[in-house]
Amino acid sequence: MKPTMPKFEPNPDKARINLRKHRVSFEEAQTIWQGSILFEVDEDHSDDEVRYTAIGVVANSRKVVRVTYTQSENRIRLISARPASKREIGRYYGYTQGYQSEG
Questions:
Q1: Which one of 43, 70, 87, 94 has the largest count of C-beta atoms within 10 Å of its C-beta?
Q2: For each of the chain's 103 residues, which pLDDT tens digit applies?
């Protein structure tokens, strides 16, 4: 069964800045919700709101990205998206391989 895609809050200015800085579009980043994702709480970067990170593979590619976002009841607001580091890629594949072997 295909996962349900969440609704994303658009922010064209932030998306443009992110693409220029990290070379990952928010459109690409949103597609990681179509597959397996490693979710974590990002406690280091904000006292004002709860932030999360999601590490996953961009749909129809092999690019692993790390997405920082906030979530309200019915929407996700992307803060940044960048290529995952080697360490993050290792954690992601360690998580997803363990998850797949259990099922």
A1: 70
A2: 566 788 999 999 999 999 999 999 999 999 999 999 999 998 776 678 899 999 999 999 999 999 999 998 889 999 999 999 999 999 999 988 876 544 4
